[in-house]
Task: structure prediction
Amino acid sequence: MTRTHVTAALAVTAAVGMMSADAAFAAGEKNLGKVHFATSCNPAAQKLFDQAMKYQHSFWYRTSRQAFEDTLKADPGCAIAYWGIGLSLLNNPFTFPPAKNLPEGLAALEKGKAVGAKSERERDLINALAVLYTDHDKVDHRTRVAAYLKAMDEVAQRHPGDDEVQLYYALALNVAASPTTARWLPCSAARCRNTSCNSSPLLYSWRWPCQRTSTCSRSEGVR
Result:
């Protein structure tokens, strides 16, 4: 086989590999379901934001970040997209975020504040997540997580009928739970806020079972 033939064969193989990867991505995305997280952004940005949130809740963090950045291209005034970037830079919230991501996440949230969200709900979410990033170079992670939980508790109280807010409060409860007493479930925490765990057809990627009976208080969490 000549060098030309080898080069051509390699090119074909690479092209087929790319097509296979694209097909696999498309197939995987199809299985993620649908997400709608209402924002004050323009319709084009809203569509991209929903897609970004779908990736975020499916643990596709790099993909979600790109989608949040695409959202900002569609609407530079979509401040809540900076909140999304901050979420994506945390990676899995149940682990320590990469140290290199912390200044970048804080910068994104500061940009979101500077742009100015058009709704109180969006401003509240941006400000709450900023607490998790603030003083990352001075304050340990667990202390910042506890401060974030307190901030999200306040946001949840201000928006009692907002399922998205309640679910993020539930997630904050799980993240802040002690490793030795981590028995909280997002659905159960949401139920303590009078939020139906079945209000969303997909409930994002949370497929954990809802506790049918649970007692909780704001100080005790969900048991």
Q: What stands out?
A: The CA atoms of residues 137 and 223 lie 34 Å apart. The chain has a mean pLDDT of 79.
